[in-house]
What does this fold into?
Amino acid sequence: MAKGTIYANRKYVIGVIAVCIVVIYTIRLLVLQLLSDDYRLRADSNAFRKEIQYPSRGLIKDRKGRLLVYNEPSYNIMVVMQEQQGVDTAALCRTLGITREWYAKRMQEIKDPAKNPGYSRYTPQIFMSQIPPEEYSVFSEKLFRFRGFSVEKRTIRHYATSLGAHILGDVGEVNRADIDSDAFYRPGDYIGKLGIERSYERELRGEKGIRIMLRDVRGRTKGHYRDGAFDTGARPGKDLILGLDLELQELAERLLEGKLGAIVAIEPSTGEILCMASAPTYDPRIMTGRDRGKNHAMLAADPMKPLLNRAIMGMYPPGSTFKPTQALLGLQEGIIDKNISFPCSHGFNYKGLHLGCHGHASPIPLVPAIGTSCNAYFCWNLQRMFSNRRKYGSVQEAMTRWKDHLVAMGFGYKLGVDLPGERRGMIPNADYYDKAYNKRWNALTVISISIGQGEVTATPLQIANLSATIANRGYYYIPHVVQNISDGQIDTLYSRPHYTQIDRRYYDCVVEGMRRAVLSGTCRGANLPEIEVCGKTGTAQNRGGDHSAFMGFAPMNNPKIAVCVYVENGGFGADFGVPLGALIIEKYINGRLSPDSERKAELFQHRRITYGKYAR
It folds into this structure.
């Protein structure tokens, strides 16, 4: 090869190498300046300190303005990992009352992206959270000795009483899913975990603010950047006023001590929940501070499931409290009328099938059948409906009509209460039985659903809502806990009436029957002086002891309260359901219990039911 050609080729090689070097440096500069924030963060860290201003969480009060949940000062100890090198860790540990091992473990957790997503060594990270004021005051005196450490003022929730844990819920530290789903949160923030603290999180949490502080080359704060021109103040969360009556809630929780079950009371004219007690319960005050995780684990491990809100999560056979729904749809469908009577020979007897009942007059029409809770009457009602091929064509079509009525009454689906975790209950449909019996079934196959047994289940909230619907003669408002939001409005979902498919005149028949039950039937224990109570017992069969249930409302013609009581393994409805329901009604209508009723309340408060090997 000619010498000149070699030199020419070398020129091109050198040129290519030079171009490659220029391209590499250009790419690196682009990465550093446009794609990487490493140097920017380092520069910002030297010049600015961004301090998040946390808002105070909204207060929660009962319907009479009594404070239920408020805030107390708390402090987080923060650390900037880039700046804390050389700190006297022994002195730091002595000041904070921690061990060297705990210090080392915590530092590793801070740097672990799996445990601390979004970690940056240039920004403040939480070293210790929820330090009480007394510990903060000790640390703040020596803070100047610990470079890279600072204190962030926060608030911690405080619950004024031990009541209403399942309604109020609690607040805990955010997890990664919370951070990923909402840019509002960063590690160390708090979020509502249960109850209305969770369902009204956006209203309660407020809006964060920020202060941009200018620092010198030695890291000393020199003041606000541009005199605070870019600072924003925190906006406190909105206060909530609940429909809850604290005194009524206290009575409901007292009456359920030593039992499993729930009590729900609703104001029929608004749908506001006056009390909602679930047993066993717990003290919401143990779910705050640094011990929250430990206490939550303890409650979660309890075999009696105190974290379970049985009022909205417990799915029970409604038993005889379901019979008014059967009377209403029978009347609406023209299957029965107020005067038609059915025989009851200690139960329903048809084609070899016997479903038992207690002794009473026979044959019996509708109003006394409700008053005495006759099983046979409602079995005949269902048998006539499901066997009416002329009207419905098939048992499947009859059952579809049956289910549609019950759904319109608030059964089979979630009502939409403003609390997390509500269950829907169970109203079977034709497809369910077609699959179970290979399409070979009839009214006798499913006859137990006519008295609230079999596959039918409901929550205590749904049963209380049925009582409110009957009190209103055919409509209800979706039950809700929150009555009002400061500087806001509750969802219009809770202010719209929901009408059933039943004519008002048929509700009058059922109300008459429920009043008969209190005056001379199964609810005589709810017959209160000067208060016209309407009620219906329920004795729901169970694999163990029968469940005791009651639903009722008062006064009859100007209803102020509708209530459901459900006590697991409590026996007959008259054993626990009726007397507890009567006490709730008397307390709310009169504002107090009579001396005799107070003695009765104390008696039931101390009555315990043994559940398997666990005695409460």
